[in-house]
Amino acid sequence: MNLQDYRGVWVFIEQKNGAIAPVSLELLGAGRKLADKRGVPLAGILIGDGVRPLAADVIACGADNVYLYDDPIFHHYRTESFMRAVIEACQKHKPEIFLFGATSTGKDLASAVATDLATGLTADTTQLDVDAETGLLEASRPAFGGNIMATILCKKDRPQMATVRPKVMKRLAPDLKRKGEIVEEAVSVREEDLRTKVLEIVRDTTQRVRIDEADVIVAGGKGLGGPDGFELIHRLAATLGASVGASRDAVEAGWIEHHHQVGQTGVTVTPKIYFAIGISGAIQHLVGMQNSGLIIAINKDPAAPIFGSCHYGIVGDAFVIVPLLIEAFQKALQ
Ligand code: FAD
């Protein structure tokens, strides 16, 4: 492989129901910096059915060009069809760096593409940089339970691929005057070649909170003692109009569903305010919330590790303090 043949930074533009996923716009912001440092173009690859109108947003948010695959075969996301388009595009245009959101779709697609192209993929990246001279992507992510940051290089293969966690990179303010080129690509993939058919989409109608998008999160842990104790968390959250988060131990005890879990094996959150109540502050929890704007911890153990990672700490019994807070906030918000 001649590495010099590969040029440019690409972002996979994830879209659903006519809207671009926020993480893709964040990656255009991050990709712009990498491309400028290298002096190469930034491109978005946009795949879907009827998605052409979104190409202008991709350019407004930082891309120099958009490779567009607009065809009914891409109506629903399927690994097979999308990976064929992405692989053909990579073989034709040879990007040096290729970024995907670390979403279910992004992770699924990036791993399939990296395997087929036999190149390196760094998963769940939280920091990106590039060596302007060598073009080596420096993709960093927490490792060993968040105790160290590992910077991973892909020295011998191209493209250098990474999935990046949502809400970590900063998107650029859209500039509607930015000019870019939309490159329409033909698809070689045909419906009869695909083994997967989407027969029906069944939506989950249970009310799912997106805690990764919340401004205020009230999170509870094992210290709440049981489902009745955990009710206090719901009451404080309702008072503040906040979302509810939880430690893994609270989830495993069955007090709350898994999609509320914050941490290494849960969701990474960056709210403006994060309450950690009856949560000890294990590293696997901290990696999921330590970038919150303001962290307020309530724990009866003054030696709990959470006090080493919070802005304000209240040492005391949650069953005494949380009702007082609810009362005070209710009065203040009347
Ligand atoms: P505990 O550690 O039991 O802490 C309870 C705290 O409540 C204590 O500090 C105690 O002092 C306090 N307390 C008790 N009673 C009261 C009271 N009345 N008032 C106030 N405070 C009180 N954990 C996660 O959270 N998220 C993850 O994604 C995650 N992923 C993991 C992945 C791996 C591979 C592993 C090995 C572990 C993972 N864990 C995760 C588990 C993690 O290591 C901890 O076990 C877990 O976070 C502890 O949950 P906790 O803080 O609720 O419980």
TrEMBL record:
Cross-referenced InterPro entries: DHS-like_NAD/FAD-binding_dom, ETF_a/b_N, ETF_a/FixB, ETF_alpha_N, ETF_asu_C, Rossmann-like_a/b/a_fold
Keyword Flavoprotein in record: yes
Pfam families: ETF (PF01012), ETF_alpha (PF00766)
A GO biological-process term: fatty acid beta-oxidation using acyl-CoA dehydrogenase
Entry note: cofactor: Binds 1 FAD per dimer.
GO MF, one annotated term: electron transfer activity
Keyword Glycoprotein carried by entry: no
CDD domains: ETF_alpha
Binding residues annotated for FAD, in chain numbering: 247-248, 261-265, 278-285, 299
Full protein name: Electron transfer flavoprotein subunit alpha
Organism: Paenibacillus elgii
